[in-house]
Design a protein that fits this description.
Helices cover about 30% and strands about 25% of the residues. By secondary structure, it is an alpha+beta fold.
Length: about 325
C-alpha cells in the first residue's frame, strides 16, 4: 500500500535507477582504455546527474564523491531527484574502478543504492574499514575477532572439503602482507584484485561463487554500497572502521565513532526497503561491460530490491541516437 506520508518508498525505484547506471556506464565506456580515469569518472557523474534529476524522489547523497567544494561531482549532502516523495538516502559511485576503466581492465561498474531517509551509515572521517563477506551459506561463520585461519577451517568444513578448496578474494596491498602469509600457510587459495570492492562483494555473496570469502581492508563508502546490495541478494558483510593514522583515529573518536564496533549489513544500511542497481562498464565476473555494435551498444545490469528479495539481470540494447545524447559525440 502507498505510504501517505511519503517517508517510505512504495514503488520499485530500482527499475528507475537502472536507467541511471546505464547512462553512467555508457558515458564512462567512451573513455575505457584511454588512460584518463578523471575524464571517465566525470563523464559518468555528468550522465548520472542528468538522469537522476528525472527520478521522483527527495534524495540526499550520504555516500558520494566527497565534500561540496569538489562539485560538480555527486558530493556528500547533495539533494538529488525532483524533490517529491519518497525521502531517501543515496549511496553512489558513478565509476567504481576508475583505474580499471582507464586501463581497460575488467570489473569496472556504475552503481547506486537507495534506502529510507536516515538509514545509511555515514562513515565520517574514516575512509577505510576491515571487511569480511560471504554468501548466505557461510554467513553464520563470519567473525572479525576470530583468527582468520579458524574461519577458513570452518568454511572448509561447511563446504564438506579441505581448506585447500577455500578461496579468499582480497585487494593486493602491502597492508595485507601478514594475512596473505597466514592464508597460504593454512593452505587456502587467494584471488587478488587491484581495485573494485563492490564488484568483489557482489561476486563473493553469490551462490555457487568461485570465491568463498571477501576479506581485507578496503573503502568504507564501498562497504556501505556493498551492504545495500547484500541486503537485497542475501549473504553477510561485517566491517570495522580502520583509521589510517592517529589523526584520523582521533577525528573518529571526537565524532563519537566506536572503533571497536562490528558493523553488519543491517547497521551499514538499516532500512527495510533498499534498492540497488549496477551496470557493467568493462567485462567482469558479475556483469558484462558495455559492448559496441553496428547499431549502438549493449549493457548488462543487476537490479535489486530488499523488500521483495527480487534480483533481476537486465540486458539492454541502446541505439546510436541515445549514445550521442549521452556522450555528445557521434558513435561508430
Amino acid at each position: 500500500m502507498p505510504d501517505p506520508t511519503g517517508s517510505r518508498p512504495d514503488r520499485n525505484l530500482a527499475l528507475e535507477l537502472v536507467r541511471v547506471t546505464e547512462y553512467g556506464a555508457l558515458a564512462a565506456a567512451r573513455w575505457v582504455g584511454l588512460g584518463e580515469k578523471e575524464s571517465a569518472d566525470q563523464a559518468a557523474v555528468d550522465a548520472m546527474r542528468h538522469m537522476l534529476e528525472t527520478v521522483q524522489m527527495d534524495g540526499i547523497v550520504v555516500i558520494g564523491e566527497g565534500e561540496k567544494d569538489r562539485a560538480p561531482m555527486l558530493y556528500n549532502g547533495e539533494r538529488i531527484g525532483d524533490g517529491s516523495p519518497p525521502e531517501v538516502d543515496i549511496a553512489v559511485d558513478p565509476l567504481e574502478g576508475t583505474t580499471l576503466a582507464a586501463d581497460g581492465s575488467p570489473r569496472a561498474l556504475s552503481v547506486i543504492a537507495l534506502a529510507e531517509r536516515g538509514t545509511m551509515f555515514d562513515p565520517g572521517p574514516c575512509v577505510y574499514m576491515m571487511k569480511i563477506a560471504a554468501q548466505q551459506a557461510f554467513a553464520h561463520l563470519l567473525d572479525l575477532d576470530r583468527p582468520l585461519t579458524e574461519t577458513l577451517q570452518l568454511v572448509a568444513k561447511e563446504k564438506g572439503g579441505d581448506v585447500r578448496d577455500v578461496t579468499v578474494m582480497m585487494l593486493k596491498r602491502d597492508r595485507h602482507k601478514e594475512a596473505v602469509e597466514e592464508i597460504r600457510r593454512a593452505g587456502a587459495r587467494i584471488r587478488f584484485i587491484q581495485h573494485g570492492d563492490v564488484s568483489a562483494a557482489l561476486l563473493a555473496v553469490q551462490e555457487a561463487s568461485p570465491v568463498d570469502l571477501l576479506w581485507g581492508i578496503g573503502g568504507t563508502p564501498e562497504g556501505v554500497i556493498s551492504a545495500a546490495s547484500i541486503k537485497c541478494m542475501g549473504g553477510q558483510l561485517l566491517g570495522r572502521l580502520w583509521p589510517r593514522d592517529d589523526e584520523e583515529r582521533q577525528a573518529a573518536i571526537d565524532a563519537r565513532y566506536d572503533l571497536d564496533e562490528v558493523l553488519d549489513v543491517n547497521r551499514l544500511v538499516a532500512g527495510n526497503d533498499v534498492f540497488f542497481a549496477a551496470t557493467g562498464i568493462t567485462d567482469g565476473d558479475v556483469l558484462d561491460g558495455v559492448h559496441y555494435t553496428t547499431t549502438g551498444a549493449t549493457t548488462e545490469s543487476l537490479v535489486m530490491r530488499s523488500r521483495s528479495g527480487t534480483v533481476r539481470r537486465v540486458s539492454a540494447r541502446h541505439v546510436r541516437e541515445k549514445l550521442r545524447e549521452i556522450s555528445g559525440e557521434r558513435v561508430g
